[in-house]
């Protein structure tokens, strides 16, 4: 059973789509959010969760104090599970669900810049499409934002577009997580978190 790890909805159970998704384990979510909270990018943040699946990552962010979370999922059954999970956790005031293809959604200009973008695509997503998604989110990032990409340890590091710089990566069993931030426009160097 998948549950919210911590925060106001900690311990609440989450439904998982019957097929086509790979929910991030509680152990990985706990370690991931420990790192993100250390970076101070969760509390009061505007969060975008792409390829949301069950919504576990975005809901974890909302439970831990994110101000606004958008879950984007292209598969209707998974988006319906996201909606049920939002209702079950009581986080509906802060979390919205969008049924749309991620590559189309990220072409829109956000209403408010994102502080945190969580990208957890299917492991079989092509590196080219992942690169296109990362390039498309770049203009919507707030200064100091963090982009997290979760993939299998068997996949290569994402190809970061110009303007987005990796500053850390962590391995958790079969899962690898990369963290990137916008490069500073003037010097072209990242903050060096």
From TrEMBL:
InterPro entries: DNA_methylase_N6_adenine_CS, RNA_MeTrfase_RsmD, SAM-dependent_MTases_sf
GO molecular function, one term: nucleic acid binding
The keyword Methyltransferase is annotated on this UniProt entry: yes
Highest rank taxon of the organism: Bacteria
Matching CDD domains: AdoMet_MTases (cd02440)
GO BP, one annotated term: rRNA methylation
Keywords from the UniProt entry: Methyltransferase, Transferase
Gene3D superfamilies (alphabetical): Vaccinia Virus protein VP39 (3.40.50.150)
Pfam families found in the cross-reference section: Cons_hypoth95 (PF03602)
Name of the protein this chain belongs to: Methyltransferase
């Amino acid at each position: 059973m998948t549950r919210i790890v911590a925060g106001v909805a900690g311990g609440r159970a989450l439904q998982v789509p019957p097929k086509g998704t790979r929910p991030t384990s509680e152990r990985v979510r706990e370690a991931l959010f420990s790192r993100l909270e250390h970076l101070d990018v969760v509390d009061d943040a505007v969060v975008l969760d792409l390829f949301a699946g069950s919504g576990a990552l975005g809901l974890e962010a909302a439970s831990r104090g994110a101000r606004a979370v958008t879950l984007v999922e292209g598969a209707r059954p998974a988006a319906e599970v996201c909606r049920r999970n939002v209702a079950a956790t009581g986080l509906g005031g802060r979390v919205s669900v969008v049924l749309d293809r991620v590559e189309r959604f990220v072409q829109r200009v956000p209403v408010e810049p994102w502080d945190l973008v969580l990208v957890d695509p299917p492991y079989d997503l092509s590196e080219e499409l992942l690169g296109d998604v990362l390039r498309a989110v770049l203009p919507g990032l707030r200064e100091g934002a963090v982009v997290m990409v979760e993939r299998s340890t068997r996949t290569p590091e994402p190809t970061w577009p110009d303007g987005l710089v990796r500053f850390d990566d962590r391995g958790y069993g079969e899962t690898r997580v990369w963290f990137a931030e916008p490069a500073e426009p003037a010097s072209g160097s990242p903050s060096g978190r």
